[in-house]
Amino acid sequence: MAIQAGTYELGPGGDATVQVKTYREGIAAKAGHDLVIEVTSWQATVDVAEDRTQSKVELSAEPGSLQVREGLRGVKPLTEKDRAEIRRNIDEKVLGREPIIFRSTALELGEQGTLSGRGELQMAGNTRPIGIELSLGSDGRITGTVTLTQSEWGIKPYRGLMGALKVRDSLDVVIDARLPSG
């Protein structure tokens, strides 16, 4: 079944999620956690045009809505206090409470079940070009992982324990959403 032309609105809950996965490094990496962070307030508009070359995507997310869902491979489990501190640091120090916005400038809906595009990502007050490559199922499911390098947006990755524990500069944004049926 082909994706029908039209405008599709997506957001959290139901059948759509956006997660951020961070990874630790450094000589004290065992003291930290690889994190799975869910974006709980976001919205996306996918415009699928009759002329597929005119299709576009726009997504916006609130930085204060990032919720730590899992802390993986750490020595100790994350506490609620840890989760709250991580959330506060991300919102205030990493993203500066600035909205996160992606706007496509070129989008291609491939015959082989791909959604490829270019656009601009605004994050932490900086805007940079980015490419995306996602899978597009015949049932309308969009899935994939976009790897971002924080320093390209002027973000200094978190460091703790006098620099011995670091968050890796690259992180993964995992998208899993289904376009509503028309």
Can you describe this structure in just a few lines?
With about 180 residues, the protein is mainly β.
Search tags:
Lipocalin; 14 strands; 182 residues; elongated; eleven-stranded antiparallel sheet
Please describe what this structure looks like.
This protein has 182 residues and is mainly β. It has a single domain, classed as Beta Barrel (Lipocalin), CATH 2.40.128. The chain has one helix and 14 strands; from the N terminus they run βββββββαβββββββ. The strands form two sheets. An eleven-stranded antiparallel β-sheet has the order 1-5-6-8-9-10-11-14-2-4-7, covered by helices on one side. Strands 3-13-12 form a three-stranded antiparallel β-sheet, with no helix packed on it. β10 and β11 form a beta hairpin. It is elongated, with a radius of gyration of 17 Å. The mean pLDDT is 88.
The amount of beta strand, in percent, is over 45%
Number of helices: 1
Strand order in space, largest sheet? 1-5-6-8-9-10-11-14-2-4-7
> What's the total number of strands?
14
Structural class: mainly beta
Please summarize the sheet with the most strands: 11 strands, antiparallel
Helix and strand topology:
Layout: E1 6-10, E2 16-22, E3 24-25, E4 34-39, E5 42-48, E6 56-61, E7 66-72, H1 80-94, E8 100-109, E9 114-123, E10 126-136, E11 141-149, E12 159-160, E13 165-167, E14 170-178
Antiparallel strand pairs: 1-5, 2-4, 2-14, 3-13, 4-7, 5-6, 6-8, 8-9, 9-10, 10-11, 11-14, 12-13
